[in-house]
Give the backbone structure.
Amino acid sequence: MAIRKVAVMGNPILRRKAEQVPPDQISSPRIQALIDDMIETQREYGGIGLAAPQVHEPLAIVALGLDNPPTDDGEDSSYFPRMVLINPKITEFSTQMEADWEGCLSVPDLSGMVKRSVAVTVEGLDRHGNPVKVSAEGWMARVFQHEIDHLHGLLYIDRMGDLKTLSFNRELSRRGVETPAE
């Protein structure tokens, strides 16, 4: 496993539509090593999600979630178990929308308000090529939408309704706003 360099805004790879991974290639050493590297990179950078284009690979693969739930007794609504999805597609969106802060490893040190569906259903393949269908609400739904946007060459700033909310995380922290992880 290796920690890969994360592409930042301005790099053309982030604006390119990702290629679907042929199912017969999922078990290949190249794809499996990429998945391992993505998970390791996500851990290193402290992200809640990472798309393959962010590590300079134009493939439709996302790694999301965290390894372990919080150790304290409080509930953490940002936790969901680690998963990898290949060729993910959002098949259902709720009509209810909610604005919240988003950040991105590819747009470092900045956050902005983005309006997204509060619930989605996502279908794809796991790292073994098995079909997966996930229904997600709240923060998890937001993370799925954010990461799948990367596969379409979109950054969260493209979804912002008002660029006036784009802020440096240090300024948000000074105002007591909790800054999000990607």
User: Anything to note?
Assistant: Residues 12-174 form a domain with the Peptide Deformylase fold (CATH 3.90.45.10). The two ends are 21 Å apart (CA to CA).
